[in-house]
Amino acid sequence: MLGFDIRVAKITWTVFLVAFLLFIIYTVSSTLLVVVFSIFFSYLIYPLVQLVERYRPARMPRTASIALVFVLVVAIVAVAGSIFGSQIQDQAIKLSQQIPELLDAKNVSDRIPLPDFLEPLRQRVLEFVRGQVVSNVDQAMPLARNFGVSVMHAASNLIYLILVPVLSFLLIKEAPAIREELLSWLNYANKRMWSGIIKDLDVLLSKYVRALLLLSIATLISYGIVFSLLGVPYALLLASIAAVLEFIPFAGPLAAVAIAVAVSVFSGYPHLVWLLGFIFAYRMFQDYVLNPILMSEGVEVSPLLVIVGLLAGDQLGGVVGIFLSVPVIAALKIIFVRASASRREKLLMQQREIIQE
Known about the structure:
It is a single chain. By secondary structure, the chain is mainly α. It is about 85% helix and about 0% strand. The protein has 11 helices and no strands. The chain has helices at about 5-25, 30-55, 60-100, 110, 120-155, 160-185, 190-230, 235-245, 250-265, 270-295, 305-355. Helix 8 (about 235-245) runs antiparallel to helix 9. The longest helix has about 55 residues, at about 305-355. The chain is globular.
């Protein structure tokens, strides 16, 4: 009537709601990031909460056991920071002070070690390196300054270091009630589908976050011990950087290797072949043995989708987008698989009803 189509109106209304939701998400993106990191932190803490709850007295409330775990984690972080934090800080300050000298075009080529068979061509190689350094120093220094500005900006938002644990505490405490409340809004069929989705997402995030933590710890210990034994300059600082970058899929480990090799080369480290051999062996062990074992459940995404997701995440959100790309793709896959299975079940039930009639 009067050219009004109800079906088109429903589609238009749905498109409007989706666009409005995306606009709201973009507007409050900073707040959502804090919530997302709080969720990830909750999954790191939750195994300890389960362990404490298993042995807590019956009269002890669940809130007290959660608080006990958070106090324990804060104490462990404080002790680790007091032991290693000063050393890492000293190495970072020393490296930042030596960066201008290390990037000096007049001296950098003389510090680069070469194999014996390249010594006759050393002069030509050094001239090439010197030319490359001269042409890129002007670009490197602004990048270093921009990185420093970014670090200072992050340091000015230290309030997030307080908000993330607080929100994590509340999420762990209220998660069961929130889940039941959300599912109560749905009918039986949708409740069954979304209950399965929530269960799969819980397995996905728990496996993914804990695997990243274990990979980061393994990298910190391995790099720290071997770098120190090999006499690599700024060993603990480079190991810490590699451990942090382990949380960024694919690009993070590559960046850590590039940083370690670059610092070693510009510092004149003489055993570069041994360093490269260790890094290659460790990356092969981690990527093809340790990583598949830790992520054998929950995160099952094809390499093609991972690479596409990493590129898209970099374009949409930079480092944060890269970090979230793999779990987001895996979550979308879970939702698609569960929704498809629910739709097939509905079709089978309709066909059975038709046959019975």
